[in-house]
Amino acid sequence: MKRDFQAPGRSPVFAREAAAATSHPLATSAALEVLQAGGNAVDAAIAAVAVQCVVEPHMTGIGGDCFAIVMEPDGRLTGFNGSGGAPRAATSEKLAQLGVKELTDTSPHAVTVPGAVRAWETLHKAHGSAAFKSLFKRAIGYARDGFPVAPRVARDWANNEAKLRSDPVSAARYLINGEAPAAGTILKYPHLAETLEKIAAGGADAFYSGAVAADIVAALQARGGLMTEDDLAACHTTAVSPVMRDYKGHTIAELPPNGQGVIALLILGILERFDLETLDPLGPERFHLEMEAARLAYAVRDRFVTDPGHMDVCHTRLIGSDYIDQLAAQVSREKRMGSLPQSALAPQTDTVYLSVVDKDGLAVSFINSLFSDFGSGIVAPESGVLLHCRGKSFRVEPGHAASIDGGKRPMHTIIPAMGLKDGAPWLTFGVMGGHYQACGHAHLLTSIIDYGMDVQAAIDFPRMFFDLDTHVLQAERLVPPSTLDGLRALGHEVVSAPGAIGGSQAIMIDKARHLLTAGSDPRKDGHAAGY
């Protein structure tokens, strides 16, 4: 597909040496600065995400979790699971004794151990080249000296005023006279700057022990939480082997559970049974098949995917050809499927994703999350750490794959990914948007592989998803009315999406031409850059 230069949009970024794509311009600049100073892709990714933890506080933070995949120039892959577990005392029985029946966004019991900082350090020890301390310069500077609020950040901030007002500390730190900051407002976070300085100087231990850990625990326990300093001290990052499956001559690599990466592979496996390349990419048939495959796959996710130590089926079974055949047989081209198992998970969450490829061909697919906007809304006052709410994916009742238990990692929606072609690096990519991410991976990849779009066109392309409770389809504004009518004729209920669906970054690697092609989602504030 060729770009219409009379229509709004952006070209992909072409570069020969290195490239970075993030959802915030200051983060992209930080990554490029590290790369041009001789740092590698891992160094640049950590520098960029540290900046995002300051300038996109609704989307990510040092009080969240992290997942990453590193791809060597020869195609070797290593995955990193930087998600933390529930506090050891947080069992179904204990929460029942406390009268807790549901884990909401702002519940202290939704705060699992934040694994991001430990993951950054682990990733750097395994693959970094620059001094760890040097990677926090820009983040510390923005937190201490101030940064301007970007337009999309301001829009999202305004949508969360009520949540931030519900806690006196978060209201004091993140609202100005009770209101969200407007775009262009200069903000400073001195407490967070000091904590970032401690992490830069002392590594992850400065976060998981000492004054910062004590501050986090005190903030949670004051609200009835069960987190202890021992829980934080026990945080560790797990190195994992990515799960891989081919799609039309391309090998797609995702992380294994407790993330939902296998669900992206499952959706692709179902879609492979249909001739997508013969369909109009904006037509009802393409979206019908994509949504039906996703509805089936998400029902599988909610039934099975959790901490792998608690799964009652191996994740490889979920992407086996026989199982995919069984699921694909339920999809009709002519009409929408009937009822499917209902999801018990909330449908809207937030995250940042970034991709970096350096001059030596090392590639990083990196995602860092607070889960919901501004996470739990709970701020540790002295350290400035805003805590995530990933534990709201748990259920309080025992007997479910998603039941909470001490030390158990919750199901994660955040999924970095990689693609290989003929065994060589081809694509580093990810899609933000909480539960949408697995579906978003399939949408992006089919746009590139089946419809020949470049990375920016595939990222820009209109999206659709479904409400996880009602299965009503939600369509972005640029999906044509004729497509919506066609979907309704197939039995779908379709409404306008309440806002842009997700976000994405991707970098395509062409080793033969020594060429990188990078794209970044216009649904966010960021951009791709390279040299």
Instruction: Please provide the count of β strands.
Output: 21
- How confident is the prediction overall: mean pLDDT? 94
Largest β-sheet summary: 7 strands, antiparallel
Radius of gyration: 22 Å
What level of helicity do the residues show?
25-40%
Largest sheet: spatial strand order: 1-20-19-15-14-9-8
- Spatial separation of the terminal alpha carbons: 25 Å
Strand percentage, roughly?
15-25%
Number of helices: 18
- Which structural class do you get from the secondary structure elements? alpha+beta
Globally, the shape reads: globular
List the domain count as a whole number. Answer: 2
Poorly predicted tracts of residues: 341-349
Describe this structure in words.
The radius of gyration is 22 Å and the shape is globular. The protein is an alpha+beta fold and 531 residues long. It contains 18 helices and 21 strands. 56% of the residues are buried. Strands 1-20-19-15-14-9-8 form a seven-stranded antiparallel β-sheet. The model is unreliable at 341-349 (pLDDT under 50). The chain starts with 12 loop residues before the first strand and ends with a strand. It has two domains: 13-239 and 351-393, no CATH class; 242-347 and 415-424 and 433-530, Gamma-glutamyltranspeptidase, large (L) subunit, C-terminal domain (Serum Albumin, Chain A, Domain 1), CATH 1.10.246.
Short description:
The protein is an alpha+beta fold and 531 residues long. It has 18 helices and 21 strands.
Summary keywords:
Serum Albumin, Chain A, Domain 1, 531 residues, 7-stranded antiparallel sheet, 18% strand, alpha+beta, 18 helices, 21 strands, globular
